[in-house]
Design goal:
F-box-like_dom_sf; 8 helices; five-stranded antiparallel sheet; nine-stranded antiparallel sheet; about 350 residues; 2 domains; PP2-like; alpha+beta; globular
Length: about 350
């Protein structure tokens, strides 16, 4: 009796109009929409796309695309043409689009539909980047880089790279992480991360000012609302190259040793302190490049983000004054935390 009731109840889904099923699916996530296709033919018909721009499935995938996707794609270097909204969603997940003269790329994270942006090396501020004795700009091989050119470090003792991005370009209510996407040349030096060496520092700073929300305004003594500016910053130690051997890597994570000159004696003194347990090491990406996480930040929800909010990502190694060579920079990618590269 109960089995018959369940079977009868399960068949009720086929009586719902397809637009109702499509609307229900549109309130979920892109991942759930794909999984729902395996539940029943009714779900598959509502979630699967066809070439009819007025179809219910297009209504589903239109809700999964960012509201401003048309304005963003208007900045694309080449026209993006897809037969349906689902095809467009898949296209942006699989192959990011170059914008603004190949200085930025735009894509989507498949699970949530959140925006993924990458600033090319040309869009970054690189100290001494216009000096050919310090940095050279080389054309990347087809298929090796997302952008037509990359920056290669020739020889500097002051390494400083930074990039800025407006928060309005990102998806509201999302926690993002910033990654340096890079490679190491065969003739590199000075980029190693050993015990006794000061590691590079990565800083992520978010500055929000303006009238994004009522909480960003403070009353003055005269009772007049005044716009407040908030600034949050996080800093991490990072490595650009893995340690030479597991034993040395374990030692580095346990403690870092720094050499200091003891005042008045002119002798070297060894100072030891516990290492930063959150030191970031590079990992290999699916496209063959390496990446290291520089930090994370959260974007407020709808109606809470000020139009002039900015996130700045900075990498620097300036304290040791070691001469360095062989860092190849493709760019800085900003994507949802834990999203695969």
């Amino acid at each position: 009796m109960e089995a018959a009731a369940v079977a009868a109840g399960g068949s009720e889904i086929y009586r719902l109009p397809e637009e109702c099923v499509a609307y229900a699916i549109s309130l979920t996530t892109p991942g759930d929409a794909c999984h729902s296709s395996a539940v029943s033919p009714a779900f598959r018909a509502a979630a699967d796309s066809d070439s009819d721009s007025d179809s219910d499935s297009d209504a589903v995938w239109d809700r999964f695309l960012p509201p401003d996707h048309a304005a963003v794609l208007a900045r694309a270097d080449e026209p993006v043409q897809c037969e349906s909204k689902k095809d467009l969603f898949s296209r942006l997940c699989d192959s990011p689009v170059l914008l603004d003269g190949a200085t930025m790329s735009f894509g989507l994270e498949r699970r949530s539909g959140a925006k993924c942006l990458m600033l090319s090396a040309r869009a970054l501020s690189i100290v001494w980047g216009d000096d050919p004795t310090c940095w050279v700009w080389t054309a990347s091989l087809p298929g090796s880089s997302r952008f037509p050119e990359v920056a290669e470090l020739v020889d500097v003792c002051w390494l400083e790279i930074s990039g800025k991005l407006s928060l309005s370009l990102l998806s509201p209510g999302t926690t993002y992480a910033a990654y340096l996407v890079f490679a190491i040349a065969d003739d590199s030096y000075g980029l190693e991360c050993h015990v006794g060496m000061l590691p590079p520092k990565a800083t992520v700073t978010v500055v929000v000012s303006g009238s994004g929300s009522s909480s960003s305004k403070k009353p003055t003594t005269a009772g007049v609302a005044m716009t407040a500016t908030t600034k949050t910053s996080t800093e991490h130690a990072i490595c650009l190259q893995h340690m030479q051997g597991e034993e040395e890597a374990a030692m580095h994570r346990r403690k870092q040793q720094y050499m200091r000159l003891r005042k008045g004696y002119g002798r070297k003194m060894m100072l030891t302190r516990e290492a930063d347990p959150d030191i970031r090491c590079p990992r290999r990406r699916g496209d063959g490049w390496a990446e290291v996480e520089l930090g994370e930040f959260a974007v407020a929800g709808d109606g809470e983000v000020a139009d002039d909010g900015v996130v700045e990502v900075r990498l620097e190694e300036v304290d040791s004054r070691r001469w360095k060579r062989g860092l190849i920079v493709q760019g800085i990618e900003i994507r949802p935390k834990h999203a695969a590269s």
